[in-house]
Amino acid sequence: MTRNEIVQPFRCDEALPIVTWNIPYDEACDNHISRTLGCSRPFLIISRSMSSTTDAVDRISKALSSAHIAGIHRGMKPHTWYSEVLEISKEIEQSGADSVITIGGGSIIDGAKAAVFAVSNEVDTMQTMDDLFRMSHERLTRADGSSCPGVLSSELGLKPSAIPIVTVSTTLSGGEYNHVGGATNDLTKLKQLFVDPALSGPRVIVLDPVLTLGVPQQVWLSTGMRAIDHCVESFCAKEVTTEASDTALAGLKLLIPALLRTAKDPKDLDARLAAQRGACESMKGLCVYQTPLGASHGIGHQLGPFGVPHAETSCILLPAVLKYNYSANYERQAKLFAIMWEDTVVSEVLRKHSLSPGSSDLGDLLDAIICELELPRSLRRYRIGEDQLRSIAKNSLKDAMCRTNPIPITTEEQVMAILEKCF
């Protein structure tokens, strides 16, 4: 381990995945591709913006002392479409790569997870890809949306991914910590979740706040709201452990002040690293403690194919979902409201938006934070008409996270009631 590098396991009882920071991302990739993973031919998947506006490709190529880049794929459309995943999986297979490095946000990360899963299962068409992803999710997910760690992949005819991933994430959505991924069917526009039978995502997660400076401000802040959504829905879940509550709170206490600081000063690297570490904490409820999430995620998955950026779905939905759920978890919401109000940075913003503890709730608090960050709050912004809401509602019912909402979402009318609050 390089001097000054900080490395921590994501799960306290497992050696991998690890989270590393405090050294430049290229040095971290060199350290862990060869020494941690024992690999020598990484395939690089990098966002188009990072490829065109930074020297990341050259830096990675020069930094790899014991490895050589097997191939490069530049760019991926938002929401990770099957057609592009199929293209990347073929490129990985043909290159002879033994590992993957990703540099970019959530779509790039999901694309890598989907592609290596497809390679292991010899997927060669979009239909076989859809069959694989649906089967993995149906058979490796319980009715409540949690994973089934005891199921043997050999019993299902599914092969776990054999190619490890090192990810340098430039956003805050947290997909790098999750063994579940999502990809969108080009024909149906349905966002299909998939689960690797090994129940493992990327093996090494690299945090480098300097690299995030090139990320558009709205992307940075909205993906931070996505991480806040992870924390809030974990804390307010129907069934939540003390450990999951603690990590959700730890994430929120890092994320909200850090986002407010970077909104004022985008070059604040300490705040950016705090937000990255908060995003890590935000995923532990779901990925470590198996805490089921709710309708903000379940409905949000289906807004993407209709033109809403993945992270911005949380800005639109989370306040409305909290108000919809208030009768079922008002004590949890009130507790979280009180804790957040104690933060001086947060309370200053809330007072600016004329909120007070006696007359506001958690939905109001988050609405004020979203407005302060100047992020979208309405579906009208994306030109989604009321005639499209039924299609979104129908697709949402197929998502397990709607069933695990504090008030289970089982009818189109329930989804419509939430969506109508988002106009």
Q: Which structural class do the helices and strands define?
A: alpha/beta
* CATH overall fold name of the largest domain: Rossmann fold
Helix content: 40-55%
The coarse silhouette is globular
CATH architecture of the largest domain, please?
Answer: 3-Layer(aba) Sandwich
Distance between the termini: 51 Å
According to DSSP, the number of beta strands is 9
In terms of per-residue confidence, which ranges show pLDDT below 50 for 5 or more consecutive residues?
A: none
Strand content bin: 5-15%
Main pleated-sheet profile: 7 strands, mixed
Count of discrete structural domains: 2
The chain-level mean pLDDT equals 93
Q: What's the gyration radius in Å?
A: 20 Å
CATH class of the largest domain: Alpha Beta
Which sequence of SSEs, written as H and E, runs from N to C? EEHEHHEHEHHHEEEEHHHHHHHHHHH
Q: What is the topology?
A:
Blueprint: E1 6-9, E2 18-21, H1 25-36, E3 42-46, H2 48-53, H3 56-63, E4 71-74, H4 82-95, E5 99-104, H5 106-120, H6 126-139, H7 153-156, E6 165-169, E7 180-184, E8 191-195, E9 204-206, H8 217-235, H9 242-264, H10 269-282, H11 284-287, H12 295-303, H13 312-341, H14 344-352, H15 362-372, H16 386-396, H17 400-403, H18 412-419
Parallel strand pairs: 2-9, 3-4, 3-5, 5-6, 6-9
Antiparallel strand pairs: 1-2, 7-8
Helix pairs in contact: 1-3, 4-5, 8-9, 8-10, 8-13, 9-10, 12-13, 12-16, 13-15, 16-18
